[in-house]
Specification:
alpha+beta, 27% strand, elongated, MbtH-like_dom, MLP_fam, MbtH-like_sf
Length: 70
Amino acid sequence: MDENTRYQVLRNDEDQYSLWPVDVEVPAGWQPVGKEGTEEECSSYVDEVWTDMRPRSLRERMENRENTEV
């Protein structure tokens, strides 16, 4: 990809994020979150919103375990 490539931010069902060129078909299992821009702009957005790198299923299991131990 070159510096003129426009990207979009995608998220999957596990709340994991990825940058994807806007002119390439979104792969199965991923959805656009509505953010488009340069690679730097999209990366900055992901850094802001993806604060817990654990997959959603792992976070939920850990939360359920904590709630049952109380």
